[in-house]
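Q: I'm teaching a short session on how sequence maps to structure, and I want students to see two examples side by side rather than one. Could you give me a first protein with its sequence written out and its structure tokens following it? Keep the formatting plain so it prints cleanly on a handout.
A: Of course. Example one:
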Amino acid sequence: MFNFLIRKDARKILKRKDSDAGEKGRALEDLRASLFNQFNFSDGAKRQQRRICGPATALTFNFVVAVGIIFVNKMVLQTVKFKFPILLTLIHYVVSWFLMALLKAFSLLPPSPSTKSTRMSTLFTLGFVMSLSTGFANVSLKYNSIGFYQMAKIAVTPSIVFAEFVLYRKKVSLLKVLALTVVSIGVAVATVTDLQFHLFGACVALAWIVPSAVNKILWSRLQQQENWTALSLMWKTTPITLIFLAAMLPCLDPPGVLSFDWNLSNTLVIFGSAILGFLLQWSGALALGATSAVSHVVLGQFKTCILLLGNYYLFGSNPGTISICGAFTAIGGTSIYTYLNLKQQPNKGSPRQPSVLPKSKLGKENGSTNGNDGHYGVESV
């Protein structure tokens, strides 16, 4: 009888241990499923991007890089005297593609969503308008003054608002329209003293407005609604952009690139500009994914006014009282627009988070991991 009771207690202890082990095993399986979903699927990578890089971080990152590349590109165009804007853009994108290829080789590039979720024609359109937007912007800067470039940039804001209303029925409140109007008027007044332009450059600037608006809308929409991360979307569209930039090269760049003095110092400055170009593209994509196309344009106009005031206070530049007043007006309008955006955010529901992979599918996904990696590697772009 005593031995029977001992055996009975032993069986209870073993069952309890088996139950505890089963619960721990299920917890480990859930953890593995969560980690597998987080690092190997686009929705997990998208949540990671949102958690690490929120709107304030993305906009600040983009602002700092944008200011830095202005000074480096000024060195490229004036000190180095590299007068080939399309080729410079092409070099930027080649370096960007090479850096992303390194990230992919070390499995650090976020995976792309399923090709069924995004049509190839959408990615092709984005790559095409990106080449036009960046290429035309650099050509416009070559022939026109900064002031005229900023005046053309003002037209991008109403173009985005109009396009989003026509395509997606997206409306903007009256207060936001008034704030954007104040920003546009302020930038126009701030840059009115620097409206030197070339007829060909003016035509290029006008042709740049529509591709720039479409480019920002697509970048923002694909990231916010189809689980694309900034780097994965750059990886898919950069080859398309390179093809169109190469086609634009003989049409918009002047001859004489072979006679350029490619010494070590010149090459290092151009390469530094290309590195900043990659960071600018990445930070711009992060900002568009975290905010909206209109907010990104407003940030660019805010940057222009800050640079104007910085040159005035730090370096003694005197653009005139009218320009200074216009810059302060634009900054005030930007502040109001930002406040309205922040005020509206609490009313929005939090974005729907995709669920973790079911445990029953974990074995299948683990068994097909190599196949997925191969698919991402050989998928046409």
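Q: Perfect. Now a second example for contrast.
A: Example two:
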Amino acid sequence: MKQNWWRSAYNHWVFKLGILMLLVGFGFRFHLSQSSSVIPNVSDNNFGTPFVTKNEKPIPSDFAESPKVLNRSYPKDDDESEKCDIFHGEWIPNSGEAPYTNNTCRWIESDQNCMSNGRPDTGYLHWRWSPKACELPPFDAKKFLEMMRGKTWGFVGDSITRNHLQSFICLLSQVEDAVEFFHDKDYKNRKWHFPSYNLTVSVIWSPFLAKAETFEDINHIPSSEIQLHVDILDKTWTQQFDTWDYVMFSSGKWFVRTAIYYENNTILGCHGCEGKNYTDLGFNFAYQKVINNLFDFIMNSNKQSTIIFRTSTPDHFENGPWSNGGTCDRRVPAKEGEFELGILNRILREVELPEFAKAKASEKGKKLKLLDVMPLSLVRPDGHPGPYRYFYPFAKDKKAKVQYDCLHWCLPGPIDQWNDLLMKLVVDD
């Protein structure tokens, strides 16, 4: 009798303990799901692109389970099974010379002119990208110009787009020097012509690809939140779209800045707007809206242009963020896996690849190409200007404290091989 009473009481307490543990588990999961509803807020910087998080919070649960996002498959052309994957490979030593120098190209902006600014090492110039299953021919400027007779190109995006455009112009200028025939007062929107080939190349400053009002001083210090209209594409490029035969779009990093989001001229919410009574929607919300609108615009246009979408790119700050001693002093490419895809880039990539795949699946006769520069760029921490965005930064003091640029790329440098990939896409078109 006593044994039965004890067994009954024991079973009763075990049952209650099990229920209690289940309740605690459900409560913990609920807490995690609530705490992951806001993505990191990111502050601004002098380079026009943010790098450092402020009041970092967990990333959304939608993005938490994507450790292989860097190598996620993307849509291939119909005959892609017979081609190699040019975006996955390795950097191998190359004894050849750079395709141009600061003396042979006059279109390099000072911030990326590492040679003229006194960078002492040149090893970063002697590597080439080698896809794992095939050879990638180097950019052939003569052949490219012949192919592009009478054509027009547009590069639309932010300062990385402008960085890429300079590389493109420098490569072509080794055959015929470009003639600049237009620029705005800030030199953010520019046009060049290659007379012998009747090729016109434009670069359009549109960091959001959408209508946006920014408020900052001459040193790029913001005085107020960006006003971003997620439903209205930037007319700076939409009004010229029909004039281009080839267009490259790229964006991403500007979306992590503090911003108020509008749709139908009504505030939807914001990102990082502390102290305001708006819902923090996260920058992935705005980026997805804009990229979706971009592809809708392309699909519904009458112009049969070749559209190239370039993926976002990494930074390589070590030992701190850009604003607090961050550096990039490496002199050789990193080993595979040494640099992980950061949270911000991972979130951007989680938007870009699915949106491109969706557009590619319903091409409607359009020519869509993905220029996925993330894999080969992630392992090139040695290719940034670093302190040499300034002219001889250590000439007067070898221990001078200098703000590094570990996002943009030296010219010449690894970014030139983005154009090897670009030509491969165009040649195979």
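Q: What should students look for in example two?
A: Point them to this: Residues 1-69 have pLDDT under 50 and may be disordered. Also worth mentioning: The two ends are 87 Å apart (CA to CA).
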